[in-house]
Amino acid sequence: MNFHQAKNIFEHTLNSEARVQKKINNGLLALIDKHLIEEVSQLIRGAIYGGQRVWMTSDLHFGHSNIIGYCGRPFHDDRHQTDVLLQLMRKIPDDELLVIVGDVCMGNYQAGVEIVKQLPGRKILVAGNHDLTKEGKCRLADEGIFEAVVPFLFWQGMKDTSVLVSHYPVAEYFPMPVAKLINYHGHLHQWVKESTDAVKFINVGWDRTHSLLCL
């Protein structure tokens, strides 16, 4: 799968996600930078096939106390949630890659920034809808916290398999240009999207894994 094929799948997925305001999805489209996406995708692929660990998670929702009730999280309050999630992340060495597949924090923006600064590792953000303002601006991209902020990533997997990383699970009814696609995604929290003959969906969200995925 090449960049243009991945971009087409991503754009079709955004067009199919009608529950999110159009300005936000347009903001995700505005983050598309071919050179940056290809560079970061190859960085991650090179790390994986070079035997290095790459960590992945999504939908941490730092600062979002209501998510505890919405998703049945095992925390007393938002402070407890933040403490436990940060403790979980501390096992990541500073020289290893951490890919957050969207929705890092909600609520007070500056408080969220201070929390994200405490996360270890070489941080990559694959932006999600809650990482953008209502006007479609990703303010986290300007904070210097992440090595890169991108709307999606892609790389060639084993044999005929291609990999696409996106916050929304891809719209699987889109004609796939590859024999088999693995889609690492978030957005669904604890819910699972059933895989098809064309797409294997892997929900990396914290509410699904209660941990970190190590690629």
Describe the structure.
With 215 residues, the protein is an alpha/beta fold. It has seven helices and nine strands; from the N terminus they run H-H-H-E-H-H-E-H-E-E-E-E-E-E-H-E. It has helices spanning 3-16, 22-30, 34-49, 66-70, 78-89, 109-116, 206-209; strands spanning 54-57, 97-100, 122-126, 148-150, 152-156, 161-166, 180-185, 199-203, 213-214. The strands form two sheets. The chain has a five-stranded mixed beta sheet, covered by helices on one side. It has a four-stranded mixed beta sheet with strand order 5-6-7-8. The longest helix has 16 residues, at 34-49. The chain starts with a helix and ends with a strand. 39% of the residues are buried.
Features:
alpha/beta, 9 strands, five-stranded mixed beta sheet, 19% strand, single chain
Write the topology of this structure.
Layout: H1 3-16, H2 22-30, H3 34-49, E1 54-57, H4 66-70, H5 78-89, E2 97-100, H6 109-116, E3 122-126, E4 148-150, E5 152-156, E6 161-166, E7 180-185, E8 199-203, H7 206-209, E9 213-214
Parallel strand pairs: 1-2, 2-3, 3-4, 6-7, 7-8
Antiparallel strand pairs: 1-9, 5-6
Give a quick summary of the entry:
The protein is α/β, with parallel strands linked by helices.
